[in-house]
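check this:
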Amino acid sequence: MDFYRKREQVKDVFLYLRRSNDESSKKQIRSIEDQEIACRMLAEQLDLNIVEVFSESSSAYSPNNRSEFDRMVKELSYKTESKRRAEGILAWHPNRLSRNALEAGKLLQMIDDGFIKDLFFCVYMFHNDPSGKEHLFMEFARAKGYSDKLSEDVNRGMDNRRTKGAEMHNPPFGYKKLREKSTAAESSLFLVPHEVNWPILKKIFELRMEGMSGASIADYLKQHGIKPEYGNKQKKTTRLPRKKYYT
């Protein structure tokens, strides 16, 4: 904490806590509580006054996606200094504040303009001088790069699974999911013909190729007592030839 004591001390700060909205495990849910405990300990050690806590579960990968962050920035952006209730921000790490270039640039500009006088982090040291702002910019860029790579890796993995025939969402009519284990820890869902609905799907396409309209196909299915396993939805199933799954 000697690093902080050597500079002019800011007294009033906003505490910002965030976890991504796709971090659904219990461990990640508790992470906001863990952040707050650590940040309050740092505030006590540095004699900081937490004016208000801004907490949310939202991704910082894209700008304009966090209502609490926007509200905090607005509170810090009043041109009249007397209206600003805080002089700085306290957070666990810079990547809690931003993982995108637009909001990272906004924060750095607010530091340059004097709206934010200081930033405090539990696991990162910031100093409001040219070198400190340069390093903070690189830290924001590192956080963005991590999110970009993670997004790319996830998309590549999903594309690879689709190429192999794995299904990510609900199966289309006529199919069902079959789980296949590739390793002890991983498994994939593949589409296989449904024992009841597959013959119905096949018949619908045959009738459509013969030139029958959707209404005529629905009548045919009803007259022959053909019903999907999930109930009587002939009108819906007759639209299947136009679905992208089957093209």
Notes: The longest strand covers residues 49-57. Confidence is low (pLDDT under 50) at residues 24-29, 231-235.
